[in-house]
Amino acid sequence: MNSEPLLYRVSCNDLAGHRIHVTLHIAQPDPAGQHLFLPAWIPGSYLIRDFSRQIESIQAECNGKAIKIAKQNNHQWHCEPCSGPLTISYVVYAWDLSVRSAHLDESHAFFNGTSVFLGVSGQEHVPCLVDLQRPKAAKNWKVYTSMPEAKGHQGAAKRHGFGLYKAPDYDALIDHPFELGTPQVIQFEACGALHEMVFTGVIPNLDLERIAADTKQICEAQIALFEPESKAVPFLDSSDRYVFMTMVTGDDYGGLEHRSSTALVASRRDLPTLNQREEAKSDGYLSFLGLVSHEYFHTWNVKRIKPAAFAPYRYLEENHTQLLWVFEGFTSYYDDLMLLRAGVVDQSTYHSLLTKNINAVYRSPGRFKQSVADSSFDTWTRFYKQDENSPNALVSYYSKGALVALGLDLYIRTHSQNNKSLDDVMRLLWERYGRDFFNTAPQGVAENAMPELIREATGIDTRDFIMRYAYGCDDLPLAELFSAQGVSLNWKSSTPLPSLDVRFSENACNELKLATVYENGAAHQAGLSAGDLLIAIDGLRVTNQQRLKQLLKAYQAGDSVQLHVFRRDELRTFTARLNPAPLDTCSLSLNPASSHE
Ligand code: ZN
């Protein structure tokens, strides 16, 4: 058994060129010729990204002598046979400001192992050491990661220092991203465990204490859901801390989950500043807290409780599963619900978060063509590759998956006289699949296992419910489900104006470009297409959405209008019959006659 650790030396000296230099020492390479690989995708983001395309150069050396290394396919290399230790040197270009790969400049470095650490075929279970070198021009940088320091090894890093870090195997090596620099940092304890929040980017007067206080409440509510008695945190199998690393920019939003950390990007304007301390939480801040809640929930649901298709991950190809409606959808349901349970939002704010999601699902006609199970399976080619027709053709396993979770929760509560809930399902999943995931042979949830698991956890038969709403395309009977719990759901139009049934491009300041033409809507019937530039209605110029609304005030549903558009550089005229405004906005209210708590 090969046990000599693999050693990765990482140097970030070319700050201006955004190049990370890596040398990989393999003490006991395959004598028949070592195979190496780089993941084609990063777990949590279901798209083949070909990270290997950022490797600018690569060399191999054995006993001080250069040997041949050749590309085998998009993601794999092969070295010529050699005896003795093998050293691979390569350069990674790191200029992607996203949570998914790597970014390096004079202000910081952020990288995921999936972009930086070559895998050594046959040695995926060998321990790995990362020797992180301090950049020469960055004397004051510190290191933030959930990867444990290599205690007991000569040159082990001290907390937040450069030096040696250690991972027990390749899966762990690429599941602890690194942030290097001089970020704003705050720590807190949740259920006795250390949590660290790291904010990179220029953020004047950031109210770190407010963010930490709210996040602590969210973390404790989630720990209490999964471990109501012991209040044990989930990540101590991988690290002694959990790290939220946030890149703050002008206008970004997103996150990626890891086993003991998460990488986020957030907009500066969404984060609270010290002078807003007395103010209520803004919508932007709530969406940041929702993101924090979502990624933290993944620590249980997808990083440890996984579909069988991800246990283990296969890094060189798509990993298909129909269950992302459970792993992303349930997580999306709980992310906002946890804000309520944590006391971070009140019930009426929670209802508005819930209705926002319901509205989003009901505005997309694609939900009648694709189930959330199929959307999960096809995410690699469809959800992650959206275009102008996606609202007509796709359903989101995030947003409709969250509604399936909501529907199941209401259904279980009602059919168990409020003795059971979706929480019982999550706890069974955690006990059965999650708690010991990294300590035992990994086992995931089988594709067809959910109905039986729900029955086992709650005693309720949800087979038909799941077939109809997760594997079929029916709308959930939300009004009925809510009503049984003493809540009424009502629909109205967001506008009194008649409708063209289109969505305009979001960045349209002084032009009205059609982003989506909804199938069978007024614009579709008239012959308009996504990409058309609307310039006039009945001969009157329209330049922006405000002007369009003013003009539409003169019309009623059923009226015909001439629409003048540019398609490419050609002027075209179409006649459209305006539709009534759709009932696209729902509201929730507690039924006063009910004794529901
Ligand atoms: Zn997610």
Layout: helices, strands, pairs:
Blueprint: E1 6-14, E2 19-26, E3 35-37, E4 55-62, E5 65-67, E6 69-71, E7 76-79, E8 86-93, E9 102-104, E10 108-111, H1 113-116, E11 119-120, E12 128-132, E13 142-145, E14 163-167, H2 170-173, E15 178-181, E16 184-190, E17 193-200, H3 208-226, E18 241-249, E19 254-257, E20 261-267, H4 283-297, H5 324-341, H6 347-362, H7 372-377, H8 390-393, H9 399-415, H10 422-434, H11 450-458, H12 463-469, H13 478-483, E21 487-492, E22 502-504, E23 512-517, H14 522-526, E24 533-537, E25 540-541, H15 545-552, E26 560-567, E27 570-577, E28 585-590
Parallel strand pairs: 1-12, 17-18, 18-20
Antiparallel strand pairs: 1-2, 2-8, 3-7, 3-11, 4-5, 4-8, 6-7, 9-10, 10-15, 12-14, 13-15, 16-17, 19-20, 21-28, 22-23, 23-24, 24-25, 24-26, 26-27
Helix pairs in contact: 3-4, 4-5, 5-6, 5-9, 6-9, 10-11
The structure holds zinc ion.
Characterise this structure.
The protein is 25% helix and 25% strand. It has 597 residues and is α+β, with helices and mostly antiparallel strands. The protein folds into four domains: 6-181, Immunoglobulin-like (Sandwich); 183-281, Zincin-like; 300-489 and 586-597, Neutral Protease, domain 2, CATH 1.10.390; 502-577, Roll (Pdz3 Domain). A seven-stranded mixed β-sheet has the order 5-4-8-2-1-12-14. Strands 22, 23, 24, 25, 26 and 27 form a six-stranded antiparallel β-sheet that branches. A hairpin with a 3-residue loop joins strand 19 (254-257) and strand 20. It starts with 5 loop residues before the first strand and ends in a 7-residue tail after the last strand. Zinc ion (ZN) binds next to helix 5.
